[in-house]
Amino acid sequence: MTNSNPPAPSRPLRVAAEVLENAVEGPGNHRLVLAIPGWPGAEPGQFVMLSPGGSSEAERTDPLLPRPMAVYRGHAAARGGRAEVEFLLKVTGRGTRLLADLAPGQSIRLVGPLGSAFAPVVPGKRAILVGGGTGIASLYELASRGAADAEVHVILGARSEGDLMGVDDFEALEVDCHITTEDGSRGRKGRVTDALAELLEAPGPPAELFACGPTPMMHACAKIAQEQRLECQVSLENNMACGFGVCLGCAVPVHSGGYSLVCRAGPVYPADQVVWEGLP
Amino acid sequence: MTNSNPPAPSRPLRVAAEVLENAVEGPGNHRLVLAIPGWPGAEPGQFVMLSPGGSSEAERTDPLLPRPMAVYRGHAAARGGRAEVEFLLKVTGRGTRLLADLAPGQSIRLVGPLGSAFAPVVPGKRAILVGGGTGIASLYELASRGAADAEVHVILGARSEGDLMGVDDFEALEVDCHITTEDGSRGRKGRVTDALAELLEAPGPPAELFACGPTPMMHACAKIAQEQRLECQVSLENNMACGFGVCLGCAVPVHSGGYSLVCRAGPVYPADQVVWEGLP
Amino acid sequence: MTESVDTRVDLGGIALRNPVLTASGTFGYGTEFAPFMDLAALGGFVAKSLTLEPRSGNPPPRIAETPSGMLNAISIENIGVEAFLNERLPELPGDVVVIASCFGTDPGNYAELAERLSESPRVAGIEINASCPHVKSGGIEFGQDPRLLGELVERVRGVTSKPLLVKLSPNVTRIDDMARVCEASGADGICLINAVQAMEVDVESRRPVLSNVLGGLSGPAIRPIALRMVWQAAQAVSIPICGVGGIFTPEDAVKFMLCGATAVQVGTANYLNPAVGREVAEGIAAYAARHGFPRVADLTGALRLPGAP
Amino acid sequence: MTESVDTRVDLGGIALRNPVLTASGTFGYGTEFAPFMDLAALGGFVAKSLTLEPRSGNPPPRIAETPSGMLNAISIENIGVEAFLNERLPELPGDVVVIASCFGTDPGNYAELAERLSESPRVAGIEINASCPHVKSGGIEFGQDPRLLGELVERVRGVTSKPLLVKLSPNVTRIDDMARVCEASGADGICLINAVQAMEVDVESRRPVLSNVLGGLSGPAIRPIALRMVWQAAQAVSIPICGVGGIFTPEDAVKFMLCGATAVQVGTANYLNPAVGREVAEGIAAYAARHGFPRVADLTGALRLPGAP
Ligand SMILES: Cc1cc2nc3c(=O)[nH]c(=O)nc-3n(C[C@H](O)[C@H](O)[C@H](O)COP(=O)(O)OP(=O)(O)OC[C@H]3O[C@@H](n4cnc5c(N)ncnc54)[C@H](O)[C@@H]3O)c2cc1C
Ligand SMILES: Cc1cc2nc3c(=O)[nH]c(=O)nc-3n(C[C@H](O)[C@H](O)[C@H](O)COP(=O)(O)OP(=O)(O)OC[C@H]3O[C@@H](n4cnc5c(N)ncnc54)[C@H](O)[C@@H]3O)c2cc1C
Ligand SMILES: Cc1cc2nc3c(=O)[nH]c(=O)nc-3n(C[C@H](O)[C@H](O)[C@H](O)COP(=O)(O)O)c2cc1C
Ligand SMILES: Cc1cc2nc3c(=O)[nH]c(=O)nc-3n(C[C@H](O)[C@H](O)[C@H](O)COP(=O)(O)O)c2cc1C
Ligand code: FES
Ligand code: FES
Predict the structure, then answer these.
(1) Which residue, of B163, B262, C226, D131, has the fewest CB within 10 Å?
(2) What is the ipTM of this complex?
(3) In testing the pocket of ligand 2, which one of B48, B69, B142, B261 has its CB within 8 Å of the most ligand atoms?
(4) How distant is the Cα of B95 from the closest Cα of chain A, in angstroms?
(5) Do D60 and A63 touch (CB under 8 A)?
(6) CA-CA distance, B123 to B152, in Å (whole number)?
(7) How many CA atoms, within 13 angstroms, populate the side-chain half-sphere of residue D212?
(8) pLDDT (tens digit, 9 = 90+) per residue, C171-196?
């Protein structure tokens, strides 16, 4: 049960990016557009590390660590030969608060692209993409690129309508979109896994899963995939200090023995490689 | 040789102030206008402590300490019953950089008014006000209020033209203004003490001095006052952590024995009370 | 909801209306804070450390800023015990709980001070400062040598029946050993930590920024160190612990209580926000209410260790 | 101007082209940084601490953020000495100075490791990690007990003629005593400090944030503590000192050199800026040039004490 290999990762860079736009998208979500000099492009599922301080600002050492953010959408080189790259971020603490406060024209330190990518959708299969909360951001490029090759279904879920991200963008793609919220404020009331179970019951070509979201949700998707013997790739959201494999802070236990680094071997894993039991 | 007593200080408050304006004034100087709810007014020479973080921003603990800033100019209650208070600040490090970056509408934590005030000018005397660098900001209210009662001369000095603050405001008052810069880029080339010595040679009523600026400059003014047996009040710019007399961090040695707290007994002292030798 | 929470705690025989004290050296003699808050909103406060005679401290510069912290080398500048008893204590409202902090150069000084302070009914308890990180003799030596510390505590214990707290230095290899010595020598509680010995240099002048060269580091930077030491001390002794070090918010205080502290002291934060003590006290009660603890005292030691449910 | 400054230093027999190393555990095995900078721009680097056998470390969570700092409890996860020698070292360009760090549970382990490492001509020096703050046995015990430390250093000294550095723990009462023991036991230099033992709690779950409960605090928060310890150690010994702890900028590094360090190690800063080591090295040279020091080695100990001109 192995997927086709993910594409070879680009060499990451460390660079000061310029904020082009930073727009509020519903309560607590922001769409951040950066101009990144020398950006080599990213594969679906890859991420960058963003330093909340900004780089033009006087040096402040708190909060200290950069924050991992999925590359939501890349655009062809546009202004001044620099790539434009889009991020969707949810304000969950101090770091993301500061990222949300960045104004156009300010600059910010970035390292990336980092991590492994989703293996591409397999033509002829039903690709089911399941995104929960901030995990939604990791799936857009996959949905967008996959739509040409396969039947793509997307399930986007969050606690409440205001926590959803990027729904309009997904709906503008040629894919089948399902929305769930735990409080029923938008789409179907319930969890993404409820919608997933239903979708899997419908007749169609064999399904493969691509999931990104909080660990308990990834675990739930992995279980469904195991029960139904489906290929399933999950993308994990662990705490990270470096993002490029040297602090060893982002470890996750794997069946092949010991720990794997989510920032380097991951964030995307075949779901059956991860030892789910006891994960925080 | 005692001056008339300074007015009794107002009870300080701790409050979130709103930024009304924050305009660049020459390279590295900013004019910050705050709306302060419940502001009791300040006497010439008093200051506030401003917390660089802003209060709406996510809590950051670096830089940690609030910064002392002289009340430059108070306005009668204007918008919404809150007092408008003006500050002139020079960007010298991380804290002032963050203060300079505050945008209108943001809020900032403030404690004040704090410290002792200049004793008022004595009618019939020549009041000579000497301000160096950021010290200029402490003298405007004194010049403005004193102009009605006495012959007021103001000497404002800085390293270079761009470092001068508030010159136009002083020139708009009914006072005699002298400008010095060390590089001669504006006004007379040299130090404020050169201009002071010259002014003191000119005939006129007995002079009294009011000085604010870096410690070496205060020491130089104190020496001139002692030699010529003039009353002299100096305002000191020590490092401060609290501003209201509890950290004991701002101590300056005094002739009456031990140390005096610049934030509480000062920042204004009769020049002959301070033990100048060996001060950093 | 918050109103229904019982906020009272007992710190080694000192009855506090809530678990928040303000720390010695950061709250003056109390009256300095009257413009900013009702002092009775605090559990109480620890006054600036006192010596037998007034003391004038180190020459400037005495303070510096560091990442998320500050350095100080004040060196126990204080008005002396007599002025404290005769001039400052009477100015304080009767419902304010005052703990006096003692500093000396030998056990005899400390005992004499404690004896004098014990005569005042306004002194609710005595804190031995065995840990000032930047005074050349006294203080830290006691806090770093278990034998000296034991002698000191026993000596002071012998002269006072007031609740006796010992403030420990973090500049030791094993804080649990120091805590055990205090318990065995008759202390009613321990407070930790004092500032961490540290240093800062100005690269332009190439000089230490403090006239004293060494100073004490305080503020949020040291909070994780303080929390660790409180947890280690709580494993070692059964007398109550007062947690100190970098507490700025109610959540910070709750962390110390979960790790085993009965009460906390707020220090450096008072300089930034003179009403922080009250805000922390209110926030702890709100936390207790939100998490279903009928008494804030139930937070003490309520940490769930890995593997525990 | 900068070009004319001689940046070379000698760290206990290790010839470095500039005084900036990167710290063990923060620079992987070196190759991870190749996309971001020419590794030869550094004085050298200290590889992740090695054990005789590969080791897989603590379960997650292993890291947390604190004010101006981070906590970690990785527990010396590493590929083992053989994989290091056979797979990683050969990948590194020949002009990169590599220092190997050893970790063990008894002096025998350490000596065996050092012996094996000494066989490689690519290992420029050996650093004994006597100070890991969160491994349950080994490491920190050696760094906290002068007798054990002395035994350990003597034992390793006996098996290697490579330059031998000892990395000290800050979790001690007197760092000067530990420095003296290293000197007396034959170390060629000492590195300090390792992370400070610390703890963090999540108030919502009421659990320690690290699976290991205790962790090591690193980053700018600890810099003033590290600087103090380097200064105290420099007063105590005449072997060279490598300053570590919270160095993020060239000015930070200069502070350590002024206090007596011959070289420095940059740690946590690598995570935020993988090219920081090169930037610090360039900045030190620029500082030396600006302040009229023909050799950066002249910065070592150039602190002006109060009273001095
Ligand atoms: C590969 C990857 C891709 C991600 N993509 C996105 C995205 O596109 N959009 C988005 O909004 N969020 C994304 N996240 C989650 C995002 O990184 C966290 O929400 C963010 O780091 C929280 O920082 P904070 O300061 O706001 O919160 P705080 O809780 O204050 O952060 C405290 C500490 O915890 C860490 N932390 C807390 N939560 C997380 C988390 N879920 N994952 C990683 N570290 C955490 C932070 O790095 C920090 O060190 C992604 C995470 C990963 C690992
Ligand atoms: C009573 C008083 C009134 C003042 N009025 C004004 C004013 O009206 N306008 C103005 O521009 N400046 C004024 N200053 C000086 C101003 O407070 C400092 O320039 C400012 O604190 C520097 O902070 P920073 O973070 O930018 O610099 P940094 O050098 O990065 O600050 C580092 C530390 O040093 C302290 N510090 C550095 N320089 C000074 C200094 N000169 N005085 C006090 N603390 C210092 C800071 O508080 C901080 O803790 C006044 C100072 C005092 C004491
Ligand atoms: C300026 C200053 C002066 C202090 N003076 C004393 C003192 O006199 N006695 C004492 O026991 N602790 C003193 N301390 C230590 C504090 O009480 C407290 O233990 C330490 O600062 C850690 O707490 P914090 O991080 O909340 O400030 C002082 C701290 C500071 C910052
Ligand atoms: C995630 C992490 C892992 C570390 N691993 C090691 C190690 O394996 N061996 C070692 O001697 N020090 C290790 N350290 C300590 C660092 O080398 C350094 O001594 C410490 O972090 C202080 O420096 P800094 O503040 O610049 O990071 C580690 C530090 C961190 C943050
Ligand atoms: S985040 Fe540092 S190794 Fe993965
Ligand atoms: S600044 Fe704290 S006492 Fe003066």
Answers:
(1) B163
(2) 0.95
(3) B69
(4) 8
(5) no
(6) 10
(7) 25
(8) 999 999 999 999 999 999 999 999 99
